[in-house]
Amino acid sequence: MEQYAIKGGNPLVGEVEIGGAKNAALAILAASIMTDETVLIENVPDVRDTNVMLQAIENIGGQVERIDRHTVRISGRTIKDMVIEDDFIKKIRASYYFLGALLGKYKRAQVTLPGGCNIGLRPIDQHIKGFRALGAEIRIEHGLVIAETQRLRGGHIYMDVVSVGATIDVMIAAVMAEGQTIIENAAKEPHVVDVANFLNSMGAVIKGAGTDVIRIKGVPKLHGTEYAIIPDQIEAGTFMFAAAVTKGDVTVKNVIPKHLESISAKLTEIGCEVEESDDAVRVVAAKPLTHTHVKTLPYPGFPTDMQPQITVALGLSRGTSIVTESIFENRFKYVDELTRMGANIKVEGGNTAIIDGVSRYTGASISAPDLRAGAALVIAGLSAEGTTVIDDIRFIERGYEDFHLKLRSLGAQIEKVNSERELQKFRLKTG
Ligand code: EPZ
Prior knowledge:
Blueprint: E1 3-7, E2 13-17, H1 22-31, E3 38-42, H2 48-59, E4 63-68, E5 71-75, E6 83-84, H3 97-106, E7 108-112, H4 125-133, E8 137-141, E9 144-148, E10 156-158, H5 164-174, E11 180-184, H6 190-201, E12 205-207, E13 214-217, E14 225-228, H7 233-245, E15 249-253, H8 261-269, E16 273-276, E17 280-284, E18 293-295, H9 307-314, E19 320-324, H10 335-340, E20 344-348, E21 352-356, E22 365-367, H11 371-383, E23 387-391, H12 394-397, H13 403-409, E24 413-417, H14 420-430
Parallel strand pairs: 2-15, 3-14, 6-7, 10-11, 18-19, 22-23
Antiparallel strand pairs: 1-23, 1-24, 3-5, 4-5, 7-9, 8-9, 11-13, 12-13, 15-17, 16-17, 19-21, 20-21
The site of ligand EPZ has 25 residues, from helix 1, helix 4, helix 5 and helix 11.
């Protein structure tokens, strides 16, 4: 089983290139099958979840050609099967985007009930409500969500919760429904806008993405396109917090600073210097970190996907901080692991962490409970005294490309090890 071995203590210094946004890519890859023409997508991150999506497209008869590591050509012309059900796709949440894509194009879809990171109850009732408003019949049988209809018609949908997945999924299907669809209380995340831009580049007519109300005028057909995915806001934010926690000086390059504002604001509040330029953000952590309070919220609020990373930083900040998780109810599971490294954090009521800053973490053997928490624990390890060994790094590899290599290029001592022997070698090498 692969693990990360980390010897903490080196400040991260230098520049790091941020890849394409995983959560935009997952939706864009699914939606790319909605035309019979060829679609070329650039800046696709080479991570486990995107590769599972591409495999799923091949499994239903679509053609996938990798031009290079981050560019893929997809053709949905040869799709013959509307059932998405392999063992890998079951584990990823974004499988639900095939419901929207297949239902929109073929008016029928059967997709395994989505899995994903175990961060709490993750219902899909808003997706179903949206598809029903477009005239689809939906039932759940044998672990599959089955959606079908003769005709998909535009509808008016008021989302009961702000949901990234439901907003994108219903938008994808509505693009090929007859007439106008209005989605109210829509999610406004940058990747919602990116998916809308991608669909518009295929001939869809979507207005208002990035606001609370999205209006879609259905079209009978979509055409081929060439499209580059936006940079990953969360990968960038993770490196920005890695700079803060290791008292480093890191410039994240190839980013859209506007998408990082809530993250930059919190870093400034806790005592870092943040400098923005056109497509880069530099974080310098020269002073001791100080406490703050933070509540996760839909965009433009502080992202839930950055909650473990800021908690790790606040764990080392002077004073008492409070972190409130308002999106998912089970996203503090990693706190037990952080406690093993010396953090002083109490979780109350499942969604509030009260953090008393400590002066240092100490290395320990721990497990990554999910993707973002896993990345946050790596950051904790980078700042810790001694060696940290992290299990279950497959979670981290779902969403971070070459995480350990990028960290190493900034001066981190981190290696992927596959056996006790390799771990011993790492320990000997790093002293
Ligand atoms: C997306 O998940 C991301 N996943 C998550 O990223 C991210 O944490 C989340 O959005 C919030 O930003 C992908 O894009 C694949 P939601 P999603 O629907 O779409 C409730 C990561 O680390 N809800 O916005 O599943 C839900 O329970 C992952 O990259 C319903 O009640 O999130 C939650 O409380 C983890 N009914 C809230 O809405 C529904 O039908 C927001 O969820 C749908 C959601």
